[in-house]
Amino acid sequence: MDKTDIKQAGLKVTLPRVKILEILEASGKGEGPRHLRAEDVYRRLLERGEEIGLATVYRVLTQFVEAGLVCRHNFEGGQSVFELDRGVHHDHLVCMKCGRVVEFMDEAIEARQEAIATQHGFTLEDHTLVIHGLCPRCQKPA
Amino acid sequence: MDKTDIKQAGLKVTLPRVKILEILEASGKGEGPRHLRAEDVYRRLLERGEEIGLATVYRVLTQFVEAGLVCRHNFEGGQSVFELDRGVHHDHLVCMKCGRVVEFMDEAIEARQEAIATQHGFTLEDHTLVIHGLCPRCQKPA
DNA sequence: AATAAAATGTGAAGCTTTTGCATCTTTTGG
DNA sequence: CCAAAAGATGCAAAAGCTTCACATTTTATT
What CATH architecture does domain A91-139 belong to? Predict the structure, then answer.
């Protein structure tokens, strides 16, 4: 994931785009959560001393999603989260209390979805599966 | 679903609440789509000549959800849709083009989710599964 | 290096949803 | 059935996230 990918997406290689890609790459690699809201990306850019506008962050993230470099998820209430697209599909387990996110992938579920779509005459283009619960830590008495 | 349910939820039986419940009951029974946005409910109230504020619609829908009378879903970008809770869990197939919604329920998927949550130490409280695709009508060449 | 095309920053605007507060309605108990 | 208390409503304003408009700056091209 680097400048080459940006270019191949038909986008010019600009500083904001490169920096945003860096932020996304750093996420989930020990540096905090993998899934970031636009606001989080913006804040991290500021922390790194980059003067990039929030509107640009939104624009670039949207372009990256369209280019297939990034995935967007709408976990809940209005806010979208973004993560680098690693090319492997997966779904999410989200803790209702602390917001922790765990990824998983289940062949059986994937297969059943395909079957259900077909059964109703639909073509399956995409899907969203989010399991909400309490993570091990949050289940413990406060 | 009537005034009794409102009362049992610890809410006063007011005209707005009764009317909103009526709108939800009428939906999905031949009268348009089953899933309504707050705005849709509001519009239908106006059509029926009821002078109920949009803020009240939001407040009442939220209270109904908390009382378990209504389910809220966040199909996509920001907007929530509401439907009367019939007590039977189900997931959704949503057409990406026309927005048509088909409900389904699959034991195999439900079981797998429980297994996955447990496997990661999570307690399963709830889940959201939305399959996006093209419905039979929208697959046909325009 | 000059030019054309595209991207950015800023601030304002858009949308959905929530909130504050004065007023009105329902409920309760006499 | 009426009065008081508790709760609900409407309106308008505010909030939160995201997008837009447009002048300015940067990238890619020749």
Answer: 2-Layer Sandwich (3.30)
